[in-house]
Amino acid sequence: MSIEFRNITKRFDNITAIDNLSLTVPGERLMCLVGPSGSGKSTLLLLLTGLLAPDEGEISINGKLVSAADKIIVPPHQRQIGMVFQTLALWPHMTIRKNLTFALKEHCTVSEQHSRIDFILRQMDIAQYENAYPAFISGGECQRVALARALILKPRIFLVDEPLSNLDQNLAEKLLYQIRKSHEDFGTTTIYVTHNQSEALAIADIVAVMNKGKIIQVAPPQEIYERPINKFVASFIAPPSNLIEGELLETHQVKIPWGVFTCHSDEANPLSQRNKKVMALIRPEYLVPGPNGPIKGKIIETSFRGAYWVITLLTENNFRLYYYAQSRFSEIGKIITLTINQPLWIIPEFTAETLRTQRN
Ligand code: ADP
Q: Which is higher by pLDDT, 139 or 155?
Protein backbone atom coordinates (compact mmCIF):
# COMPACT_ATOMS: atom_id res chain seq x y z
CA MET A 1 0.00 0.00 0.00
CA SER A 2 1.53 3.29 -0.99
CA ILE A 3 1.18 6.32 1.26
CA GLU A 4 1.09 9.94 0.21
CA PHE A 5 1.38 13.02 2.39
CA ARG A 6 0.53 16.19 0.46
CA ASN A 7 1.40 19.62 1.86
CA ILE A 8 0.78 18.60 5.45
CA THR A 9 0.98 21.18 8.21
CA LYS A 10 0.33 20.38 11.88
CA ARG A 11 0.64 22.93 14.68
CA PHE A 12 0.44 22.57 18.44
CA ASP A 13 -0.34 26.05 19.78
CA ASN A 14 2.55 28.11 18.44
CA ILE A 15 4.78 25.12 17.52
CA THR A 16 4.73 24.03 13.89
CA ALA A 17 5.49 20.31 14.26
CA ILE A 18 4.94 19.53 10.55
CA ASP A 19 5.58 22.29 8.06
CA ASN A 20 4.03 21.95 4.58
CA LEU A 21 5.46 18.46 4.22
CA SER A 22 5.02 16.26 1.16
CA LEU A 23 6.25 12.66 1.05
CA THR A 24 5.44 9.49 -0.86
CA VAL A 25 6.12 6.07 0.67
CA PRO A 26 6.07 3.42 -2.08
CA GLY A 27 4.11 0.23 -1.40
CA GLU A 28 5.80 -2.73 0.33
CA ARG A 29 8.99 -0.78 1.01
CA LEU A 30 10.72 -0.07 4.30
CA MET A 31 11.22 3.65 4.75
CA CYS A 32 13.27 4.96 7.65
CA LEU A 33 12.20 8.34 8.89
CA VAL A 34 15.28 9.78 10.51
CA GLY A 35 15.84 13.13 12.16
CA PRO A 36 16.79 14.75 15.45
CA SER A 37 14.45 14.76 18.44
CA GLY A 38 11.61 17.19 17.94
CA SER A 39 11.82 17.15 14.13
CA GLY A 40 8.22 15.91 13.82
CA LYS A 41 8.66 12.17 13.18
CA SER A 42 6.15 10.90 15.75
CA THR A 43 3.63 13.55 14.81
CA LEU A 44 3.81 12.39 11.19
CA LEU A 45 3.07 8.79 12.29
CA LEU A 46 0.12 9.92 14.43
CA LEU A 47 -1.25 11.80 11.42
CA LEU A 48 -0.94 8.65 9.33
CA THR A 49 -2.72 6.49 11.92
CA GLY A 50 -5.60 8.97 12.03
CA LEU A 51 -5.14 9.68 15.73
CA LEU A 52 -4.43 13.29 14.74
CA ALA A 53 -5.86 15.35 11.87
CA PRO A 54 -3.65 17.72 9.88
CA ASP A 55 -4.37 21.47 9.98
CA GLU A 56 -3.64 21.63 6.27
CA GLY A 57 -2.99 19.13 3.51
CA GLU A 58 -4.11 15.61 2.64
CA ILE A 59 -3.06 12.03 3.31
CA SER A 60 -3.90 9.16 0.96
CA ILE A 61 -3.37 5.43 1.39
CA ASN A 62 -3.25 3.52 -1.88
CA GLY A 63 -4.82 6.48 -3.63
CA LYS A 64 -7.75 6.72 -1.16
CA LEU A 65 -8.05 9.99 0.77
CA VAL A 66 -7.90 9.17 4.50
CA SER A 67 -7.28 12.60 6.10
CA ALA A 68 -7.76 16.19 4.95
CA ALA A 69 -7.52 19.59 6.66
CA ASP A 70 -9.09 19.18 10.12
CA LYS A 71 -10.79 15.96 8.96
CA ILE A 72 -10.33 12.27 9.67
CA ILE A 73 -12.02 10.71 6.66
CA VAL A 74 -11.09 7.06 7.38
CA PRO A 75 -10.99 6.30 11.14
CA PRO A 76 -7.87 4.70 12.65
CA HIS A 77 -9.33 1.18 13.01
CA GLN A 78 -10.16 1.03 9.29
CA ARG A 79 -6.69 1.98 8.09
CA GLN A 80 -5.10 -1.48 8.45
CA ILE A 81 -2.16 0.00 10.32
CA GLY A 82 -0.12 -1.88 12.93
CA MET A 83 2.04 0.17 15.24
CA VAL A 84 4.79 -0.48 17.75
CA PHE A 85 5.63 2.39 20.10
CA GLN A 86 8.77 2.85 22.15
CA THR A 87 6.70 2.26 25.30
CA LEU A 88 5.35 -1.09 23.94
CA ALA A 89 2.16 -0.81 26.03
CA LEU A 90 1.77 -4.53 26.75
CA TRP A 91 -0.94 -5.41 29.27
CA PRO A 92 0.99 -6.28 32.45
CA HIS A 93 -1.79 -8.44 33.98
CA MET A 94 -2.06 -10.68 30.91
CA THR A 95 0.24 -13.47 29.79
CA ILE A 96 1.93 -13.13 26.41
CA ARG A 97 -0.70 -15.38 24.82
CA LYS A 98 -3.51 -13.35 26.45
CA ASN A 99 -1.95 -10.10 25.18
CA LEU A 100 -2.07 -11.50 21.66
CA THR A 101 -5.58 -12.94 22.09
CA PHE A 102 -6.78 -9.57 23.31
CA ALA A 103 -5.38 -7.88 20.22
CA LEU A 104 -7.21 -10.36 17.97
CA LYS A 105 -10.51 -10.27 19.87
CA GLU A 106 -13.44 -9.58 17.55
CA HIS A 107 -11.21 -9.91 14.50
CA CYS A 108 -11.58 -13.64 13.87
CA THR A 109 -13.04 -16.94 15.17
CA VAL A 110 -11.54 -18.62 18.24
CA SER A 111 -9.93 -21.40 16.19
CA GLU A 112 -8.37 -18.89 13.81
CA GLN A 113 -7.14 -16.92 16.83
CA HIS A 114 -5.31 -20.03 18.05
CA SER A 115 -3.67 -20.75 14.73
CA ARG A 116 -2.65 -17.12 14.15
CA ILE A 117 -1.18 -16.85 17.66
CA ASP A 118 0.71 -20.15 17.33
CA PHE A 119 2.12 -18.97 14.02
CA ILE A 120 3.27 -15.57 15.25
CA LEU A 121 4.74 -16.97 18.47
CA ARG A 122 6.92 -19.27 16.34
CA GLN A 123 7.71 -16.55 13.82
CA MET A 124 8.97 -14.20 16.56
CA ASP A 125 10.69 -16.98 18.47
CA ILE A 126 8.72 -16.34 21.67
CA ALA A 127 6.63 -19.56 21.86
CA GLN A 128 8.37 -20.61 25.08
CA TYR A 129 7.09 -17.47 26.84
CA GLU A 130 3.42 -17.78 25.92
CA ASN A 131 2.35 -18.30 29.53
CA ALA A 132 4.74 -15.73 31.04
CA TYR A 133 3.73 -12.22 32.10
CA PRO A 134 5.54 -9.24 30.50
CA ALA A 135 7.34 -8.36 33.76
CA PHE A 136 9.01 -11.78 33.75
CA ILE A 137 10.57 -11.69 30.29
CA SER A 138 13.46 -9.56 29.05
CA GLY A 139 13.25 -6.18 27.30
CA GLY A 140 14.12 -7.75 23.94
CA GLU A 141 11.46 -10.44 24.37
CA CYS A 142 8.88 -7.77 25.26
CA GLN A 143 9.85 -5.96 22.06
CA ARG A 144 9.24 -9.14 20.06
CA VAL A 145 5.82 -9.56 21.73
CA ALA A 146 4.97 -5.96 20.79
CA LEU A 147 6.00 -6.66 17.18
CA ALA A 148 3.92 -9.87 17.24
CA ARG A 149 0.90 -8.04 18.61
CA ALA A 150 1.07 -5.45 15.83
CA LEU A 151 1.64 -8.00 13.06
CA ILE A 152 -0.95 -10.55 14.18
CA LEU A 153 -3.67 -8.27 12.82
CA LYS A 154 -2.09 -8.62 9.35
CA PRO A 155 -1.69 -4.87 8.83
CA ARG A 156 -0.89 -3.57 5.37
CA ILE A 157 1.07 -0.71 6.94
CA PHE A 158 3.48 -1.27 9.80
CA LEU A 159 4.74 1.69 11.84
CA VAL A 160 7.60 1.31 14.27
CA ASP A 161 8.51 4.30 16.45
CA GLU A 162 11.98 4.33 18.08
CA PRO A 163 11.70 0.69 19.24
CA LEU A 164 15.33 0.08 20.15
CA SER A 165 16.19 3.10 22.32
CA ASN A 166 16.06 1.16 25.58
CA LEU A 167 17.96 -1.93 24.46
CA ASP A 168 21.66 -2.73 24.66
CA GLN A 169 23.50 -2.70 21.35
CA ASN A 170 23.59 -6.49 20.84
CA LEU A 171 19.89 -6.87 21.38
CA ALA A 172 19.10 -3.77 19.36
CA GLU A 173 20.99 -5.22 16.40
CA LYS A 174 19.12 -8.55 16.61
CA LEU A 175 15.78 -6.82 16.80
CA LEU A 176 16.65 -4.52 13.94
CA TYR A 177 17.03 -7.54 11.67
CA GLN A 178 13.87 -9.08 13.13
CA ILE A 179 11.99 -5.95 12.07
CA ARG A 180 13.47 -6.10 8.59
CA LYS A 181 12.60 -9.82 8.34
CA SER A 182 9.04 -9.25 9.59
CA HIS A 183 8.62 -6.49 7.03
CA GLU A 184 9.61 -8.93 4.28
CA ASP A 185 7.70 -11.95 5.64
CA PHE A 186 4.46 -10.00 6.05
CA GLY A 187 4.84 -7.86 2.91
CA THR A 188 3.92 -4.63 4.71
CA THR A 189 4.67 -1.03 3.80
CA THR A 190 6.81 -0.11 6.78
CA ILE A 191 7.82 3.22 8.28
CA TYR A 192 10.55 2.90 10.85
CA VAL A 193 11.18 6.02 12.92
CA THR A 194 14.54 6.60 14.51
CA HIS A 195 16.96 9.35 15.49
CA ASN A 196 19.76 6.78 15.08
CA GLN A 197 21.36 7.25 11.68
CA SER A 198 23.19 3.92 11.58
CA GLU A 199 19.96 1.98 12.24
CA ALA A 200 18.40 3.81 9.32
CA LEU A 201 21.28 3.10 6.96
CA ALA A 202 21.30 -0.57 8.00
CA ILE A 203 17.71 -1.58 7.28
CA ALA A 204 16.02 0.95 5.03
CA ASP A 205 15.11 0.62 1.37
CA ILE A 206 14.64 4.37 1.44
CA VAL A 207 15.70 6.95 4.01
CA ALA A 208 13.71 10.14 4.54
CA VAL A 209 15.66 12.73 6.53
CA MET A 210 13.51 15.17 8.53
CA ASN A 211 14.37 18.41 10.27
CA LYS A 212 12.13 21.08 11.79
CA GLY A 213 8.94 19.54 10.43
CA LYS A 214 10.21 19.27 6.86
CA ILE A 215 11.54 16.46 4.70
CA ILE A 216 15.07 17.39 3.69
CA GLN A 217 16.07 14.44 1.48
CA VAL A 218 14.57 11.12 0.40
CA ALA A 219 16.94 8.57 -1.14
CA PRO A 220 18.34 5.03 -0.75
CA PRO A 221 20.78 4.70 2.20
CA GLN A 222 23.95 4.72 0.13
CA GLU A 223 22.91 7.84 -1.73
CA ILE A 224 22.02 9.62 1.53
CA TYR A 225 25.47 8.75 2.84
CA GLU A 226 27.52 9.51 -0.26
CA ARG A 227 25.46 12.32 -1.80
CA PRO A 228 23.80 14.33 0.97
CA ILE A 229 21.82 17.23 -0.39
CA ASN A 230 22.88 19.80 2.19
CA LYS A 231 25.10 20.43 5.17
CA PHE A 232 22.48 19.21 7.65
CA VAL A 233 22.15 15.77 6.01
CA ALA A 234 25.92 15.51 5.52
CA SER A 235 26.57 16.18 9.21
CA PHE A 236 23.58 14.35 10.69
CA ILE A 237 24.08 11.11 8.77
CA ALA A 238 27.17 9.26 9.96
CA PRO A 239 29.13 11.87 11.92
CA PRO A 240 31.90 12.93 12.04
CA SER A 241 32.15 14.46 8.60
CA ASN A 242 34.61 16.86 7.00
CA LEU A 243 32.96 19.77 5.20
CA ILE A 244 35.47 22.00 3.48
CA GLU A 245 35.01 25.12 1.43
CA GLY A 246 36.37 24.95 -2.10
CA GLU A 247 36.10 26.24 -5.61
CA LEU A 248 34.57 24.17 -8.38
CA LEU A 249 36.96 24.43 -11.33
CA GLU A 250 35.49 22.38 -14.12
CA THR A 251 33.69 19.09 -14.42
CA HIS A 252 34.99 16.68 -11.81
CA GLN A 253 37.53 19.04 -10.21
CA VAL A 254 37.43 21.05 -7.01
CA LYS A 255 40.14 23.25 -5.50
CA ILE A 256 40.40 22.92 -1.71
CA PRO A 257 43.16 24.16 0.64
CA TRP A 258 45.35 21.10 -0.13
CA GLY A 259 45.18 21.15 -3.92
CA VAL A 260 42.86 20.21 -6.77
CA PHE A 261 40.89 16.99 -6.33
CA THR A 262 38.40 14.97 -8.28
CA CYS A 263 34.78 15.39 -7.23
CA HIS A 264 31.39 13.98 -8.15
CA SER A 265 29.67 16.14 -10.63
CA ASP A 266 26.19 15.40 -11.88
CA GLU A 267 22.84 17.06 -12.36
CA ALA A 268 22.90 17.96 -8.66
CA ASN A 269 25.93 20.18 -9.35
CA PRO A 270 24.61 22.57 -11.97
CA LEU A 271 26.96 24.41 -14.26
CA SER A 272 26.00 27.63 -12.50
CA GLN A 273 28.20 26.50 -9.61
CA ARG A 274 31.33 26.44 -11.77
CA ASN A 275 34.08 28.79 -10.53
CA LYS A 276 32.03 29.47 -7.44
CA LYS A 277 32.59 28.74 -3.81
CA VAL A 278 31.19 25.35 -2.88
CA MET A 279 31.22 22.98 0.04
CA ALA A 280 32.96 19.64 -0.39
CA LEU A 281 32.26 16.58 1.73
CA ILE A 282 35.26 14.43 2.63
CA ARG A 283 34.04 11.38 4.57
CA PRO A 284 36.71 10.29 7.12
CA GLU A 285 37.35 7.05 5.21
CA TYR A 286 38.36 9.06 2.10
CA LEU A 287 41.46 10.18 4.05
CA VAL A 288 44.30 7.69 4.29
CA PRO A 289 47.83 8.05 5.67
CA GLY A 290 50.48 8.28 2.95
CA PRO A 291 54.08 9.55 3.17
CA ASN A 292 53.73 12.03 0.29
CA GLY A 293 50.16 13.07 0.98
CA PRO A 294 49.25 16.72 0.50
CA ILE A 295 47.60 17.07 3.93
CA LYS A 296 50.00 17.46 6.82
CA GLY A 297 49.00 17.92 10.43
CA LYS A 298 49.22 16.96 14.06
CA ILE A 299 46.97 14.46 15.81
CA ILE A 300 45.04 16.31 18.51
CA GLU A 301 42.39 13.74 19.54
CA THR A 302 41.91 10.00 19.34
CA SER A 303 38.73 8.12 20.12
CA PHE A 304 38.74 4.31 20.34
CA ARG A 305 35.72 2.63 18.70
CA GLY A 306 36.66 -1.05 18.98
CA ALA A 307 37.50 -2.05 15.41
CA TYR A 308 38.98 1.37 14.57
CA TRP A 309 39.93 4.77 15.97
CA VAL A 310 38.51 8.15 15.07
CA ILE A 311 41.45 10.52 14.80
CA THR A 312 41.24 14.31 14.75
CA LEU A 313 44.01 15.98 12.83
CA LEU A 314 44.82 19.69 13.09
CA THR A 315 46.32 20.54 9.72
CA GLU A 316 49.22 22.95 9.12
CA ASN A 317 46.78 25.42 7.62
CA ASN A 318 44.57 25.14 10.71
CA PHE A 319 41.70 22.86 9.66
CA ARG A 320 40.28 20.05 11.74
CA LEU A 321 39.93 16.81 9.79
CA TYR A 322 38.57 13.48 10.98
CA TYR A 323 39.85 10.17 9.66
CA TYR A 324 39.79 6.53 10.72
CA ALA A 325 42.86 4.55 11.74
CA GLN A 326 43.20 0.83 12.36
CA SER A 327 46.29 0.92 14.51
CA ARG A 328 46.95 2.07 18.06
CA PHE A 329 50.05 4.03 16.94
CA SER A 330 48.14 7.22 16.38
CA GLU A 331 49.28 9.07 19.47
CA ILE A 332 48.30 12.62 20.23
CA GLY A 333 50.99 15.02 19.03
CA LYS A 334 52.21 12.78 16.19
CA ILE A 335 52.70 14.45 12.78
CA ILE A 336 50.86 12.64 9.97
CA THR A 337 50.43 13.13 6.25
CA LEU A 338 47.19 12.11 4.57
CA THR A 339 46.02 11.70 1.06
CA ILE A 340 42.47 11.66 -0.33
CA ASN A 341 41.65 8.43 -2.12
CA GLN A 342 38.07 8.97 -3.29
CA PRO A 343 36.25 11.66 -5.24
CA LEU A 344 34.76 14.36 -3.02
CA TRP A 345 31.07 15.17 -3.00
CA ILE A 346 29.99 18.73 -3.69
CA ILE A 347 27.03 19.60 -1.47
CA PRO A 348 24.34 20.69 -3.94
CA GLU A 349 22.25 22.93 -1.69
CA PHE A 350 24.13 25.62 0.09
CA THR A 351 24.09 29.34 0.66
CA ALA A 352 26.87 31.72 1.53
CA GLU A 353 25.95 31.45 5.25
CA THR A 354 26.32 27.68 5.28
CA LEU A 355 29.86 27.97 3.97
CA ARG A 356 31.49 27.70 7.33
CA THR A 357 34.47 25.42 7.11
CA GLN A 358 36.18 23.38 9.78
CA ARG A 359 38.87 25.92 10.41
CA ASN A 360 39.98 25.53 13.99
P1 ADP B 1 10.08 13.68 17.09
O2 ADP B 1 9.22 12.47 17.03
O3 ADP B 1 10.88 13.90 15.84
O4 ADP B 1 10.95 13.73 18.31
P5 ADP B 1 7.62 15.07 17.61
O6 ADP B 1 6.72 14.77 16.46
O7 ADP B 1 7.39 14.30 18.86
O8 ADP B 1 9.13 14.97 17.16
O9 ADP B 1 7.49 16.61 17.99
C10 ADP B 1 7.63 17.67 17.05
C11 ADP B 1 7.40 18.99 17.76
O12 ADP B 1 6.04 19.10 18.15
C13 ADP B 1 8.20 19.14 19.04
O14 ADP B 1 8.57 20.49 19.18
C15 ADP B 1 7.22 18.74 20.12
O16 ADP B 1 7.52 19.36 21.34
C17 ADP B 1 5.90 19.24 19.55
N18 ADP B 1 4.75 18.42 19.98
C19 ADP B 1 4.53 17.13 19.64
N20 ADP B 1 3.37 16.70 20.18
C21 ADP B 1 2.85 17.74 20.88
C22 ADP B 1 1.67 17.93 21.66
N23 ADP B 1 0.76 16.98 21.81
N24 ADP B 1 1.48 19.16 22.23
C25 ADP B 1 2.37 20.15 22.06
N26 ADP B 1 3.51 20.04 21.33
C27 ADP B 1 3.75 18.85 20.75
A: 155
